[in-house]
Every structure is written in structure tokens, then in C-alpha cells.
Amino acid sequence: MKKNVxxxxxxxxxxxxxxxxxxxxxxxxxGLLGASNYQGDLSNNSSALYLKETHLAAGAFGAYNMNxxxxxxLSFSYATISGTDxxxxxxxxxxxNLNFRSxxxxxxLTLEFNIPGFDPYNLNKxxxxxxxxxxxxxxxxxxxxxxxxxxxxxxxxxxxxxxPGYPNPYRLNTxxxxxxxxxxxxxxxxLSLGFExxxxxxxxxxxxxxxxxxxxxxxxxxxxxxxxALLSNRTSEYLGEPVAVTPGTPRGDQAPADWYFxxxxxxxxxxxxxxxxxxxxRLRRNKRSGCNT
Length: 293
What we know:
Structural class: alpha+beta
Distance between the termini: 43 Å
Largest sheet: 8 strands, antiparallel, barrel
Oligomer: single chain
Radius of gyration: 24 Å
Shape: elongated
CATH class: Mainly Beta
CATH topology: Porin
Number of helices: 6
Number of strands: 10
Number of domains: 1
């Protein structure tokens, strides 16, 4: 499936480049400051976003504006995501008593489609909405609060990862599909401001270390560690007494993937003095001379 996604994105990129017109091309550099959140196994069975789990997010990007309606953007973003069963109103979820927190480092390549079109040059089209979508890669590292410390979860194999008969440890990086909407406005022909709402569909269900089923704690303790068994099933901490969970019963929500979200304000600088390969200067010279480009 990942290969098909890559092929589709590459085909769309080639199609977009083939439609670009030389006259309107220019480069743009900018940054984004905003907030991040998450939806997955620790957000009430993937059905809620909790404002208390919102964190600061930031990013930087460079864009190649092919024409007034299409831009190719390369970006790097940093965000934090977190979740805890304590947020849920469902007592069965609260009893599970799991929590996590993870940084997200994301490299993305997206296409922005400006509707009805955006051209800051002489403020020709200073305002536009836009849609964006593309492909990205993210690095993450879930930890849990335990005994007043942050404990890295992936090395523990809390769902039996790494043991005979169980899956290999999950990777701490994943392909993601960024998508979203935004607004942009050119204050001058060099400086523009904007706001965007973006979602990322991850190709992993382990951003929060929770996905599958409970494993026999004796197996975890013997094969991985006592800590693995303790952090796999934390219901006993919640109730204050030993509680056994039947091995093989669902630990996660069985959804195929986790999501995270980044929203924020963006500011960018447009390099319009000479455009791509001097196209702006050539355009002005040709207009003065009465020639067509």
C-alpha cells in the first residue's frame, strides 16, 4: 500500500509541474507557529480530541509557487502529542489507566491548491483559500509517566513485541499523509500571512504504544521485563488492588492507524525580485518592449 501511495503522489507531482507556467513562478520561505493534538487509542477510542492535550507546534517551509493556483512546499515541523485514559468519561476506559506523550518530527512534501488563486506580485491576487495534500515522514518516541519518571515504551514491548510468536518491535518512524485547508493574505508583494488546519494520517497504530491485545503478564515479565508487564496493564494502579486481564482481549481500539493534527499561523517572504531564473525581470522587460513571453 505504501508503494501505491508513493506512486500516486509522484504522478500528481509530475502532473502539477507539467501544468506550471513560467511567468508566475517564484520561491517563498516561511514559518508556522501553532498547536498540535492527537486522535488514537488513548483519545476515548479514537472518537475525541481533548483540548487539555493540546501542545505547542512549530515549523519552517520553503515553497515553489508554480503559478497563481499551485505551489509545491517542502516543510519541517515539530509537535508534541499526548493522551491519557483519565480524560475519558467512560469508566471502563479510565480503568485501563494508560497514558503517553511523544514528540513528533515531520518532514513533508505537499501541494497547495489556491482557490481562487494567489499572486502577491503587485498584489494582483492578495487573498486566497487553499487546500493541501501530499506525503511526509515522521519520527516519534512514546513515553509514559510511571513512578514520577518518563519511561520509553517501545523498548519494553508492552504487547509482546520481540517475543517468539509475537510481532517485531514497531518502528519509531512512519509514513504520513498530510492534508488540510488554509487561508493566506499578502500584506505586501513580499510578505504574506496565513492560517491553516492540517491533519496527518499515520501509517502506524503505535504513536501511543497501544494497538493490539493484552499479553499474559507472566510472559511479558519473563521475556521482556517486569516493567513491561506493569506498563502493559495498569488497571491495578487505578483500582489499588491486583487485577488480572484475560490475555487476548483488546488493549487498543483496533483502528488501523493513529492521527495527529497541526494548526497554526504562518508568515512567509516571497522572493519576487527576479523569480525563477530571472523570469520576473524578463517579463517586465518583454512587456516594456511589447514582446510576448
